[in-house]
Design a protein that fits this description.
Keywords: Cell membrane, Electron transport, Membrane, Oxidoreductase, Respiratory chain, Signal, Transmembrane, Transmembrane helix, Transport. β6 (187-191) and β7 (195-200) form a beta hairpin. The protein contains eight helices and eleven strands. The protein has helices at residues 3-18, 24-28, 44-77, 94-121, 242-253, 261-267, 288-297, 306-318; strands spanning 142-148, 153-157, 162-165, 167-171, 176-182, 187-191, 195-200, 206-210, 216-222, 234-240, 279-282. α3 runs antiparallel to α4 (94-121). The protein folds into two domains: 32-81 and 91-124, Helix Hairpins (Orthogonal Bundle); 138-316, Cupredoxins -  blue copper proteins (Immunoglobulin-like). It has 334 residues and is an alpha+beta fold. The chain has a six-stranded mixed sheet. The N and C termini lie far apart (57 Å).
Length: 334
């Protein structure tokens, strides 16, 4: 087979796929499970991240669009059939040099300035966009410890002496500071409309921060593949008023189960919360977060039992509904 025949064969193979190119944006919408949440920020951190993303895209378009037009113009102007003028004695042009060097220098300087400001504006360890004048009842940030397990999220409120599973509740208009760790593999903590994605790692402590402008419910989830229960590793983020937060604390404090370290060890065993039903614990043990981190550093693990993945494989072959509708399924597995 000649090279021309091979080229024609490849062209026929890829021709059907080219017809699907206009559908690419529609396919990407499935990644969010709904609207483009990153384009609908509800807090200063998410808003700043979107603004800097827009700056990057605009600058990129400022470079790519003129360059593409210039290339097309050169192809049209100097095509063979036009018999364009040929200048073998051309050596240089000051105007051309100024354009070729001046524009990149200005663009890089602008991006460097934006990147410098953006780095500090949304720095998870102390974002500048969260700096605000002290106001009564809001001057002190709410501190929450976040623990990612296989495959649930545990939120510990040290000052309020309560904890919740797969439900994060924060008051509107108040800064929130997170300490995060994992008992299993590296994962990512992400609430698209409120804060940026950040790694959550076993045996380590990372930080994040956010503030919600108004009340509402937003979705948070694990943004890094972490095994069989990854699709169900989501949590509701409820932003409530001052009274609503106090009510949440009273409700969680009335939970019969206290969150001792022994209780946590049972909780951290691989579990898939299929219906994503929240649970609550009262009286978390003092320094529980630090003990969890130290245990991971010392080699503490929570192996996934083979029966769990084997049961999921049987359900998949049987066409279980929870594979098609993770958020609407019922029942738990562990």
């Amino acid at each position: 087979m000649s090279l021309c025949d091979e080229a024609r064969l490849k062209e026929r193979r890829f021709r059907p796929w080219r017809r699907l190119a206009p559908l690419t944006p529609l396919l990407l919408t499935g990644c969010s499970g709904g609207p483009f949440r990153v384009f609908d920020p509800k807090g200063p951190v998410a808003r700043a991240s979107l603004n800097f993303t827009i700056i990057d895209v605009v600058v990129m378009a400022f470079i790519i669009v003129p360059t593409a037009c210039f290339i097309l113009w050169c192809i049209w102007r100097y095509r063979r059939s036009r018999a364009a003028a040929y200048s073998p004695g051309f050596s240089h042009s000051l105007k051309l040099e100024a354009v070729m060097w001046g524009i990149p220098i200005v663009v890089v300087a602008g991006l460097a300035y934006a990147s410098y400001n953006g780095t500090f504006a949304v720095d998870p360890y102390g974002p500048h966009v969260l700096r605000m004048p002290a106001r009564a009842g809001r001057s002190h940030p709410l501190k929450i410890d976040v623990v990612a397990t296989d495959w649930q999220w545990l939120f510990i409120y040290p000052k309020q002496h309560v904890a919740s599973v797969d439900r994060l509740v924060v008051p509107a208009g108040r800064n929130v500071e997170f300490r995060l760790t994992s008992t299993s593999v590296v994962n990512d903590f992400f609430i698209p409309q409120l804060t940026d994605m950040i790694d959550v790692m076993p045996g380590m402590r990372t930080k994040d921060a956010m503030r919600a402008n108004g009340q509402g419910r937003y979705e948070g989830f694990a943004a890094n593949f972490s095994g069989a229960g990854f699709s169900w590793m989501r949590f509701a983020t409820d932003v409530v008023g001052k009274r609503g937060f106090a009510k949440f604390v009273r409700h969680a404090a009335a939970a019969p189960a206290a969150l001792t370290y022994a209780t946590f060890e049972r909780f951290a065993r691989p579990t898939i919360n299929l219906d994503q039903r929240p649970r609550y614990f009262s009286a978390p043990a003092p320094h529980l977060f630090r003990r969890i981190v130290e245990a991971s550093r010392n080699g503490k693990t929570y192996p996934v039992p083979p029966r769990l993945t084997e049961a999921m494989a049987r359900d998949l072959r049987a066409g279980a509904s929870y594979f098609s509708h993770p958020a609407a399924s019922r029942g738990t597995s562990g």
